[in-house]
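Structure in, sequence out. Go:
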């Protein structure tokens, strides 16, 4: 199974909206949601799937999500509806769930492998589909999912995502920077040079020449020549695992990942901006019809919705997860604020990091003093200055606490 649970215990905090756009939470629960799909761009009827065979459906644009039953088969890692009636789920147990009646009933299809399947994709023709998984598994169907055949590839690396422009031309990506390309329906594959060794978690094709890949440690790659060369893209966020990328049109694209971050481009990927920071790790972002109406899903069955192209979700000051909080007072402030933390919770040495709204690190404050002793519990003062000792500009900042086993976030506002 794709290791998407390693950061599940992080406590994530949003900070106040800077624009009028927003993401609105529609659903929450106990499972992790790994994927969602709205068949044929129908923004009323959608599905989401996740761990513990969790499968959700909406018929009213997400106002209500109800759990529906398929055959229990471990975690449901990916879902795809090439038509409104025909749906498929890639399962942790190596099977594929198939529905031919719009998700009302599901049939378990044995693919002859016990390896976890991480992604499934059907391009333009609903008869042709591909599924990828652990250990370099690639399988293909040419009869609408009834039968699947092995597709040999020149790699045994774990694979996490697949995207085909048509039944012939597509990519698979995975562990250790693996990018494989085929132009003949999987008969032959070219292993392309990604120039990275990170885990690649998603791939999106704009056309036969232009494609994007994202992965761990804020990895973002782009090609404009069919993968002959891949270029690294610097994004306006600190180190984040990026799980999903989509382009609802040629100019507008979205990426989501851990720490609740969603970033957006409106110029075809030339520049990216932080679109929002929400509460949960997100594993899939989908804009099924246009660049305005979209959804993200992730930790704790969180599903968020936007109808205006996204934005920063507005929450009260100093809202935190749990009773033991990092606090700042005063907040908002002009000259200084005192950061207080409960020593009973944060026993291990750690540090505070302060970021601006573009994700740039402004200031690091260690909890270990110069003499090696823990800083005082009664608080650490931040005087509103950056690492160079310069006063920061008035505005919103994100305070992040990190130790070996704890992460919390808090919004800070610096006044003029």
């Amino acid at each position: 199974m794709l290791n998407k649970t390693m950061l599940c215990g992080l406590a994530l905090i949003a900070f106040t909206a800077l624009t009028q756009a927003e993401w609105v939470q529609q659903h929450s629960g106990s499972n992790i949601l790994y994927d969602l799909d709205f068949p044929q761009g129908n923004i009323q009827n959608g599905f989401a799937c996740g761990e513990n065979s969790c499968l959700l459906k909406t018929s009213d644009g997400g106002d209500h999500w109800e759990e529906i039953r398929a055959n229990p088969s471990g975690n449901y890692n990916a879902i795809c509806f090439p038509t409104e009636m025909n749906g498929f789920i890639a399962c942790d147990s190596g099977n594929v769930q198939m529905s031919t009646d719009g998700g009302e009933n599901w049939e378990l299809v044995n693919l002859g492998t016990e390896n976890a399947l991480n992604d499934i994709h059907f391009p333009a023709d609903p008869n042709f589909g591909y599924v990828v998984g652990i250990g370099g598994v690639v399988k293909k169907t040419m009869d609408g999912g009834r039968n699947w055949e092995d597709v040999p590839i020149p790699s045994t690396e774990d694979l996490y995502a697949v995207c085909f422009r048509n039944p012939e031309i597509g990519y698979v990506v995975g562990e250790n920077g693996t990018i494989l390309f085929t132009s003949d329906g999987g008969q032959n594959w070219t292993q392309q040079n990604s120039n990275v060794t990170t885990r690649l978690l998603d791939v999106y094709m704009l056309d036969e020449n232009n494609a994007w890949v994202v992965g761990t440690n804020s990895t973002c790659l782009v090609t404009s020549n069919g993968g002959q060369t891949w270029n690294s893209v610097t994004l306006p966020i600190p180190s984040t695992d990026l799980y999903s990328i989509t382009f609802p049109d040629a100019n507008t694209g979205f990426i989501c990942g851990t720490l609740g971050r969603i970033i957006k481009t409106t110029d075809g990927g030339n520049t990216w901006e932080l679109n929002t920071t929400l509460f949960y790790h997100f594993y899939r972002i989908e804009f099924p019809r246009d660049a305005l109406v979209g959804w993200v899903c992730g930790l704790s069955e969180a599903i968020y919705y936007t109808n205006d192209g996204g934005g920063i979700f507005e929450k009260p000051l100093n809202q935190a997860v749990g009773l033991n909080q990092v606090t700042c007072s005063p907040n908002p402030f002009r000259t200084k604020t005192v950061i207080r933390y409960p020593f009973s919770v944060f026993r291990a040495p750690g540090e505070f990091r302060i970021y601006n709204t573009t994700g740039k690190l402004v200031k690091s404050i260690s909890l270990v003093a110069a003499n090696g002793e823990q800083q005082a519990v009664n608080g650490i003062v931040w005087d509103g200055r950056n690492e160079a000792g310069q006063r920061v500009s008035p505005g919103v900042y994100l305070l992040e606490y990190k130790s070996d086993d704890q992460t919390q976030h808090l919004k800070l506002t610096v006044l003029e």
